[in-house]
Design a protein that fits this description.
By secondary structure, this protein is an alpha/beta fold. Helix content is 38%, strand content 17%.
Length: 327
C-alpha cells in the first residue's frame, strides 16, 4: 500500500513525516536538510538561537536542500515574533508554533502567504487553530519530548481531534518505528512528527554524550518535571533535575537575560539545555526526551531511519488491510 503524502497549504509533502523542532541548537540546519532531502519536513528549532544564528541556520539548511523546511518556535520565547519574521524573510516553507498558543502568528504568516502549523492537545484549541487559519495541527500527547500540554496519550486525543477539524491532523509523541506510524495513520492522522528518533541520528548536531546518554539510559531514568516555563516535560533524572525536584535553591540563576515571557527562575532552562546540547554535561544539563528512547537502539543516518520507518509503515498498513474482514 502506498503511504499517503501530506498537504500543508499549497505544498505537497511526499512523505508524511515531520522532524520535530528541537530547541537550543538540537535540530539545526544539518538535520533539517537531511530530513527534507528524504521527502519529509525538516525543521530548524529556533528557540534559544540569536536572530543572527537563526538566519544562518535557515540559509545553511536552504543551501543543502530543495525540500520542505520549517521553523519551530516556542510561543513562550520572548523573541517569538522576531524569530518568525527572520524565518519568513529566509523563505521558510512552514512555521510551526509550539509550547503555547499565539493568535498573532496567523496574521503575520498570512501576509507572507506562509502556512502555520500549531501544536495542540485538545479539541478546543484544534478548532480555534483551524478557525484562525492553521494549515494543520500537530496533536502531541504526554509521551513526547519537549514541553507538554496534556497528560493524555496521543492515541487517546487523536480520534476526537480528527473528527472535530477538517485540516490535516499530525500525531506526535512516543513514535519510533513504522508500526507506530501505521497505527496513527489508521487512527486518522495525516502524518506524524518524530523528535527523539531524529535526535538519535548521525546528522543531529547535538553533543555526542547526549546521544550516548540516551542510548544507554533505562526506562526508569525518566522523570516528569515542571520546567521553569511552567509546563510539564519528560527529562532524564540527572543531578540538576534531582536538585530541581528537591526544590534546591542553589540552582536558581544568579543572572537572567529574560529569554522567556514567563519563567519561575527555579533554574536557568536556557543554560541547562545548552549545557546538555552543546557540552553533554551530565551534572548541569537538562536532557529532554520522548518516553520511547529505550526502544531506539542505535544512532543511525537519517536516510536509514527514513527507509526503516517507511518499510515498517507499509508492512503495518498491508497487514491490517489484509486482516480486514471481507464483506
Ligand atoms: C530535546 C527536545 C527538544 C525539543 N524542543 C522543542 C521545541 O523547541 N519546540 C517544540 O515545539 N517542540 C520541541 N520538542 C518536541 C518535538 O518537536 C516533538 O514534537 C516531540 O519530540 C515528539 O515526541 P517524540 O520525541 O516522542 O518523537 C523537543 C523534543 C526534544 C526531545
Amino acid at each position: 500500500m502506498k503511504i499517503p503524502s501530506l498537504q500543508i497549504g499549497r505544498k505537497l509533502v511526499d512523505t508524511p513525516i515531520i522532524q520535530g523542532g528541537m530547541a537550543v541548537s538540537i535540530s539545526t540546519a544539518e538535520l533539517a536538510a537531511a530530513v527534507a532531502n528524504q521527502g519529509g519536513i525538516g525543521v530548524v528549532g529556533g528557540t534559544g538561537l540569536s536572530m543572527e544564528a537563526l538566519r544562518r541556520q535557515m540559509r545553511e539548511a536552504r543551501d543543502a536542500t530543495k525540500g520542505i523546511l520549517g521553523l519551530n518556535i516556542m510561543v513562550a520565547a520572548r523573541e517569538f515574533k522576531d524569530a518568525v519574521l527572520v524565518a519568513l524573510k529566509e523563505k521558510v516553507d512552514v512555521v510551526i508554533a509550539g509550547a503555547g498558543f499565539s493568535r498573532d502568528v496567523f496574521s503575520i504568516c498570512k501576509e507572507w502567504k506562509t502556512p502555520v502549523i500549531t501544536m495542540v492537545s485538545s479539541v478546543k484549541v484544534a478548532r480555534l487553530a483551524e478557525r484562525l487559519g492553521a494549515a494543520a495541527v500537530i496533536v502531541e500527547g504526554c509521551d513526547a519530548g519537549g514541553h507538554l500540554g496534556t497528560e493524555e496519550k496521543t492515541s487517546d486525543l487523536l480520534p476526537a481531534i480528527c473528527e472535530a477539524v477538517s485540516i490535516p491532523v499530525i500525531a506526535a509523541g512516543g513514535f519510533v518505528d513504522g508500526q507506530d506510524i501505521g497505527r496513527m495513520l489508521e487512527l486518522g492522522a495525516a502524518g506524524v512528527q518524530l523528535g527523539t528518533r531524529f535526535l538519535l541520528s548521525d546528522e543531529c548536531t547535538v553533543h555526542k554524550d547526549f546521544k550516548s546518554l540516551l542510548i544507554n539510559a533505562k526506562a526508569s531514568d525518566l522523570v516528569r518535571i515542571i520546567s521553569p516555563v511552567g509546563l510539564p516535560a519528560n527529562a532524564l533524572n540527572t543531578p540538576l533535575v534531582k536538585k530541581h525536584l528537591a526544590q534546591d535553591s542553589s540552582i536558581r540563576p544568579k543572572t537572567c537575560n529574560g529569554c522567556l515571557k514567563h519563567c519561575s527562575h527555579a533554574f536557568c532552562i536556557r543554560d541547562a539545555l545548552l549545557k546538555a546540547s552543546q557540552e553533554g554535561d551530565y551534572e548541569r544539563g537538562l536532557f529532554f526526551t520522548g518516553k520511547r528512547y529505550p526502544d531506539i537502539s542505535a544512532v543511525e543516518p537519517v536516510k536509514k531511519i527514513f527507509n526503516d520507518l517507511l518499510e515498517g509503515t507499509r508492512d503495518y498498513l498491508n497487514r491490517t488491510l489484509v486482516q480486514e474482514p471481507s464483506r
